[in-house]
Amino acid sequence: MVTKIQRKLLNGLHLNTKIQCENEAGEPVDWFIIYKLPTYKIGEVGSGVDYMYLDPSLETWQLSKFMINTSQGAIGNTLSQLYSKAINKSSSSAYALYNDSPPVLKYLRGYGHTKGVLLFDLYQGFWLSHSIPHFPSFPEMGYLYPSSGKVNGQTALCVSLHYDQFLHITQHLVYLFPRLYNCSVPSAFATKLPQLAQLCAGHRPEALSDKKMDQLVSLQGEMFFTFAKSERFVDDIYTGWVAQVLNVNLLVETWQRQGHDLPSNCSLPNHVMNIKRIRLPGSVPFHSKYDHSKWCISWAYQKHLTCLGDLNREVFQMWRGGGLLCSYNTLIYKAFRQVVDWYIGC
């Protein structure tokens, strides 16, 4: 059987195909979100590889017919562009894989708590921000999903972007100081993106402050904005920054280990409340202790704020670099708001 990658190579399509996020059918899409279900749900043990899918063409979450540990589906289709040797070995594209817990390699302290993938050429590309440790695999290994990623719930957000937006993303990464475990920044990109080239070489560019907000625009004009904090901003990103600067009460879903977790905070003008139980459409609910995703939404429906990102509400992560990718998209907000089954209020 001819695989998708082989078919593209045989047809020479990779030389002309535009790099961007791909949906469940392998078609270009402006953005997508996946919510991987955990193995342990209330009264049920699942496969740990099922996931829900959302993109601009859908009204709400759809259970994928694919499994996340196969190369089929939105993430597999999107990463196939990276894993194809025609792009992987080309000087006409740049890529970066980062994860504080990378595949194969040992864990090292000092890096930001952040995970993601960049792939782009001089025209456009994608940014895949996710919460999955030990993922994705090195390009030469092909698509591999780690067994450790089955137990807990996970989220991933992919956004398609014009080339000029990757300057903003690079500056975002400077604050986070991600562990880039595999990357390529050819000379055609290094001039405009010197900080990315420095990160790829293992150096840390200087950040101008301890935190930074910025704005991104997708290929189709969808507005996103980013929060990036370095380890010098010693505070919970949700309580000490996002809720206060956006003047909004937040419901936050993050992985909280017992004894390290931060309680719901109602002491500041804008409150931050921990979500404790999730119920995705058509799925058995599950507790936050089995959810490794990191996201927040506005408590008030009229705000329609949703953020996905890197940091847990834990004591030690107040001292870690990390960030959030946020949107006021009503579709995204409603999809996340409906899954909140129980939270600890004020």
Automatic annotation (TrEMBL):
Pfam families: DNase_II (PF03265)
GO biological process, alphabetically ordered: apoptotic DNA fragmentation
Coiled-coil annotated spans: none
Catalytic reaction list: Endonucleolytic cleavage to nucleoside 3'-phosphates and 3'-phosphooligonucleotide end-products
Enzyme Commission number(s): 3.1.22.1
One annotated GO molecular function: deoxyribonuclease II activity
Nucleotidyltransferase recorded as keyword: no
Keywords: Hydrolase
Family indicated by similarity: Belongs to the DNase II family.
Entry-linked PANTHER family: DEOXYRIBONUCLEASE II, DEOXYRIBONUCLEASE-2-BETA
Protein name in the entry: deoxyribonuclease II
Species whose genome carries this gene: Hippocampus comes
